[in-house]
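hiii so um. not sure if this is the right channel but i have a protein structure encoded as tokens and i wanna go backwards to a sequence. like what aa goes where. can anyone help
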């Protein structure tokens, strides 16, 4: 594990202090437009548009973003829709264009649907980056990539295989059918299986369900997956889906196991009781922090978002922009982290 836990804790602590002060910040939990920024000492305002406002994952990413904004002297705005659909994100972005913010960081609920409004923002000189779920390459300056998507997809299938000892059907509980990140990971999950047919002969993917990052729907979809006796392990590449699935498996005292992308703080009880022997993720505070510093480097002209551009990302150190698999550019955060019984005690209080 390359990322230093001490560093993460220090970042998290700083972020926690910010959260305590959040009610006094311009960032808020509403989808209503915020007033124009009045603090004349602040020249740049960077908005954060998550997939939805309820998701603790997005809230934690924002903590890092807000910390970076504070360190760079910018104002952070927190704007997210109530649900994981593009329509409200478009409304929010329209309103941010009117407010003349300096930059918008967005996690796409639907990359194609967001393209026109993001291109309009770029034409107005607003810097656009995506994080978590990429927007189209011609509707952004760059994308903050949490970890190698190929590694994420392949690793989740390998984990499911290991959990069922090479014998048992796999079900996937994902989020929405338009989420760029989840769809990319699904592609690599399928690739891992299709490229290794002998290894995975007895661990086919028997079902894919969409929980839309909605806890209630994810719960219902998990129950639907369990109606199929061939399902022996569920992969949930979404923290909302993973928590919902874990609770269903516990309540139903099911023998079906779970792996996926989950927050250590939420998944610790299920790692400890064996429902989910291994959980994966990356440093989610750092994604927001990296997004904030990338935005600032774009806003002050240090970078344009082109491949090869380099900039300083605060406590994360120097970063160089590389090529994304969609042909656009990206800034890579780091490694995929694995949480299991050997290390969950260290991580469950971090995020
Ligand atoms: C969910 C979101 C997000 C995903 C994480 C792992 O909260 O869908 O997009 O990256 O889980």
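sure thing!! here u go:
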């Amino acid at each position: 594990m390359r990322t230093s836990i001490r560093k993460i804790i220090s970042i998290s602590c700083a972020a926690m202090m910010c959260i305590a002060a959040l009610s006094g910040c311009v960032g808020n939990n509403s989808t209503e437009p915020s007033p124009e920024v009045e603090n004349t000492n602040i020249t740049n305002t960077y908005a954060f548009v998550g997939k939805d406002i309820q998701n603790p994952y997005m809230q934690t990413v924002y903590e890092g973003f807000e910390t970076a904004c504070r360190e760079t002297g910018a104002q952070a705005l927190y704007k997210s829709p109530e649900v994981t659909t593009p329509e409200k994100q478009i409304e929010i972005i329209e309103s941010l264009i009117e407010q003349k913010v300096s930059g918008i960081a967005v996690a796409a609920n639907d990359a194609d649907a967001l393209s026109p409004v993001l291109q309009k923002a770029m034409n107005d000189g607003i810097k656009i980056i995506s994080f978590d779920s990429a927007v189209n390459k011609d509707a952004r300056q760059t994308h903050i990539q949490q970890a190698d998507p190929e590694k994420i997809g392949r690793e989740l299938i390998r984990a499911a295989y290991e959990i069922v000892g090479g014998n048992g059907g796999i079900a996937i509980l994902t989020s929405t059918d338009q989420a760029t990140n989840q769809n990319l990971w699904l592609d690599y999950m399928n690739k891992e299986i299709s490229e290794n047919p002998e290894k995975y002969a007895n661990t086919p993917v028997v079902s894919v369900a969409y929980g839309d990052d909605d806890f209630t729907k994810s719960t219902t979809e998990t129950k639907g997956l369990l109606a199929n006796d061939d399902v022996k392990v569920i992969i949930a590449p979404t923290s909302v889906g993973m928590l919902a699935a874990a609770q269903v498996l516990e309540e139903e005292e099911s023998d079906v196991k779970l792996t996926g992308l989950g927050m250590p703080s939420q998944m610790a009880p299920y790692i400890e009781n064996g429902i989910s022997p291994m959980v994966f993720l990356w440093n989610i505070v750092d994604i927001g922090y990296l997004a904030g510093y990338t935005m600032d480097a774009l806003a002050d002209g240090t970078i344009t978002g082109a491949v090869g551009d380099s900039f300083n990302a605060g406590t994360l150190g120097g970063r160089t922009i590389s090529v994304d698999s969609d042909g656009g550019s990206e800034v890579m955060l780091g490694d995929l982290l694995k949480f299991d019984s050997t290390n969950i005690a260290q991580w469950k209080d971090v995020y």
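oh and Confidence is low (pLDDT under 50) at residues 1-38.
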